[in-house]
């Protein structure tokens, strides 16, 4: 007999008796404010998935010997809910997040789950806490699904117990300015045959010390380089895109390919799709090395560079430090105070207009 899967029709809702006050948008910073409720769904190999439950936000009870606490059996996602001018609340391409969560969880041997039913539970959580979805353009409700192994067992095997849980956080702009990068070729965030293309907690902790070291030097993020040729991979926790005139004289938007090293970002995919729809310049997914970038800067062929991800949407890069020297990256030559380059701003505006319901699109999924 097959084990029960997630069933949104069995969702139980227990509302908080101590609701939090509304947040002022001006005080919002990323990931520090949380809503009243969370979604929890437990799994055991013996009984399958239990009934989903929305309950007051609070601490989790986890055994000290749980797999997640000892062997980092954990994956997560990052999504957002956006309030349109007419009050409608939209998610953005949520099926891509569900698929990526499923793919990542399979890599660490967590149980399969019904993606559509789980997504329906997330929508119900957003409905319960909809008053926390900001009504200002550029602000949103960040959604963090987590999937962890909870069985208390120190044997190095798979976890026979698991927990899917989701909490919400109203957020403002992540990087309301340009960013400066420090190119790192000494350490690697991901490598061939590794797990860089999965959204696992274990990918993030080892990058914390290198990231804090460059912050202490006055930079915002690491530009991760790989191999002897200094292959340009990602920036911090974001995908990295370059807009330049390539060595063949073509205007080109280029980013690293999904070669097993790069995380398949939803924002990355969306920006590439938009640029391809325009058909105004070449759009490529291919390897680029740091020496190629330096030559483009020296030749005046570098037009813009930016990071892309759910948290920041896009953020323009204004400087890269590489092998003892700082290189200025153009942002907007016509406006020295610009926060975004012309292409970066155009992509950002088109994407936000879809997310906030200004531009009709199947990518915007109403809650």
UniProtKB/TrEMBL annotation:
<dbReference type="InterPro" id="IPR005786">
    <property type="entry name" value="B_amino_transII"/>
</dbReference>
<dbReference type="GO" id="GO:0008652">
    <property type="term" value="P:amino acid biosynthetic process"/>
</dbReference>
<dbReference type="InterPro" id="IPR043131">
    <property type="entry name" value="BCAT-like_N"/>
</dbReference>
<keyword id="KW-0100">Branched-chain amino acid biosynthesis</keyword>
<feature type="modified residue" description="N6-(pyridoxal phosphate)lysine">
    <location>
        <position position="199"/>
    </location>
</feature>
<keyword id="KW-0808">Transferase</keyword>
<keyword id="KW-0032">Aminotransferase</keyword>
<dbReference type="GO" id="GO:0009082">
    <property type="term" value="P:branched-chain amino acid biosynthetic process"/>
</dbReference>
<dbReference type="InterPro" id="IPR036038">
    <property type="entry name" value="Aminotransferase-like"/>
</dbReference>
<dbReference type="InterPro" id="IPR033939">
    <property type="entry name" value="BCAT_family"/>
</dbReference>
<dbReference type="InterPro" id="IPR001544">
    <property type="entry name" value="Aminotrans_IV"/>
</dbReference>
<dbReference type="GO" id="GO:0004084">
    <property type="term" value="F:branched-chain-amino-acid transaminase activity"/>
</dbReference>
<comment type="similarity">
    <text>Belongs to the class-IV pyridoxal-phosphate-dependent aminotransferase family.</text>
</comment>
<dbReference type="InterPro" id="IPR043132">
    <property type="entry name" value="BCAT-like_C"/>
</dbReference>
<protein>
    <recommendedName>
        <fullName>branched-chain-amino-acid transaminase</fullName>
        <ecNumber>2.6.1.42</ecNumber>
    </recommendedName>
</protein>
<keyword id="KW-0028">Amino-acid biosynthesis</keyword>
<dbReference type="Pfam" id="PF01063">
    <property type="entry name" value="Aminotran_4"/>
</dbReference>
<keyword id="KW-0663">Pyridoxal phosphate</keyword>
